[in-house]
Amino acid sequence: MSPGKKKRKKTTATETSQDSRRQTEARTEAEAAAADPAAGERPAAAGAETAEPEWRDRALRAHAEMQNMRKRLESEVEERTRMRMEALFQELITLNDHLELALAALPDELEQNQAAAGFLAGIKAIAASFDDLLRRFGLEAIQPADDQEFDPDRHEAVQTEEREGLEAPRLELVRRGYQIGRRILRPAQVRVLRPAEPAAPEQE
After folding, report:
1. Handedness of CA 30, 32, 38, 44 (dihedral sign)
2. What architecture does CATH give domain 138-196?
């Protein structure tokens, strides 16, 4: 027998031995799987259990971010609406000021004139309706009483004057202020009146 033929027989025997070992290992794995069917599923189940908390945390964070975004948008919309309403109220207040100034400038003789009496009554009715409109929208006029103390948050002093016959300081309204809720849209302009100091006695 030639050397080449002996070498081929030796190689064939080695391959046969490897095939036998593979079959034995496969049979052992099959028997183990039959004895414990869940053994192959454990790694996948363990991976799923590990991934579940991670996805839950992501979902909770996404939900919290959406809630925060919704609150921010609602707050921005409310702020823009408030600013627009306040701008509109300022225009209405200014228009009401002009109406009051026009009424104050009318001469007293108009009330005695029958032809002008109806016109004057109509203007006063419009002014009263305008005040009612402002109140319906939540605006409250700031009109300090005579004996009320000066409040820098609600009053704006446009003049200080000493006046005879006063026993204590008092306020005199120059222009009404307005507030909506606790927010001051415009402080009331007042004149602060103080008792006049007694004249010094004349020296002989």
Report:
1. negative
2. Roll (2.30)
Mind listing the pLDDT tens digit for each residue in 58-75? 888 888 899 999 999 999
Distance CA 188, CA 168 (A): 20
Burial class (CB in 10 A: 0-12, 13-18, 19+), 170: buried
Of 173, 97, 168, the C-alpha closest to 142 is 173
Collapsing DSSP to helix, strand or coil, 195 comes out as strand
**How would you classify the pairing of strands 139-142 and 177-180?**
antiparallel
Question: What gap in Å lies between CA 194 and CA 44, rounded to an integer?
Answer: 90
How many residues does the structure list for the chain? 204
Burial class of residue 91 (count of CB atoms within 10 Å of its CB; 0-12, 13-18, 19+): exposed
Pair 172, 191: CB distance under 8 Å: yes
Q: Which residue has the tokens 């701008």?
A: 87
91-144 per-position pLDDT tens digit: 999 988 988 888 888 887 777 777 777 888 888 898 899 889 899 988 999 988
Rounded Cα distance between 159 and 190, Å, is 7
